[in-house]
Each structure stands twice: as C-alpha cells, then as structure tokens.
Design goal:
Blueprint lengths: L1 H5 L6 H17 L4 H13 L1 H18 L11 H16 L11
Bound molecules: zinc ion.
Zinc ion (ZN) binds next to helix 2 and helix 4.
C-alpha cells in the first residue's frame, strides 16, 4: 500500500517531504490511486515547501504542454544516421585497425 509507505517514517519530516515530492509528477498526471493522492494532497495543505514545489511543477508541466509539436526538418535524420553508422563501423573494427581521425 503506497499510503502506508508514505507515512512509514512520519517522524522524519524531511523524509516524508522527499517521498511526497517524488510522487508529485504522478499526482499531476493522475497516475496515483485515490488514497495516495489524498495523502499527498493532505501533506501539500500543511507543508508550504512541498506545496511550492507542487505549484512550480504543475505550472511547468502545463507550460510545456502548450508548446507546439516540433516536426524535425527532412534533412535532420540522414547526417545523424550516417554518423551513427560510421561510429558503429569504427567500433566494430578490431583494435589494431583503429586509426586516429585525420586532422
Ligand atoms: Zn513537505
């Protein structure tokens, strides 16, 4: 049970804050079960610093979601694929055939 783990070391406030902050992205994305989400929201209501982190994270995620999807240019892939192929061929050679790159 997530909510039990969340409060395992309740006396260690710092540790609880760390656990809460680790789950904030999941809370924002709605990936948490209702009880865990409720436990985290209860902590956010009483912890100024975690609430601040939550606000900033939520704002950042929403901002990123407003960015348009960037379609890579048609010329983008071939030079990268060529460089990967060249690198793969270079590392596939036996070590005695390795040569330093010409200046
Ligand atoms: Zn906290």
């Amino acid at each position: 049970m997530e909510e039990t783990r969340l409060y395992e070391s309740y006396e260690e406030g710092f540790s609880l804050c760390t656990r809460v902050r680790d789950r904030l992205p999941d809370l924002i994305e709605g990936y948490l079960d209702a009880m865990t989400a409720e436990a985290i929201r209860s902590h956010l209501a009483v912890c100024y610093m975690c609430n601040k982190v939550f606000d900033e994270m939520e704002r950042t995620i929403k901002l990123v979601e407003t960015l348009p999807f960037a379609e890579p240019h048609m010329d983008f892939a071939p030079p990268i694929m060529a460089a990967i192929k060249m690198q793969a061929e270079e590392t596939a050679k036996p070590w005695w055939k390795w040569r330093p790159k010409p200046e």
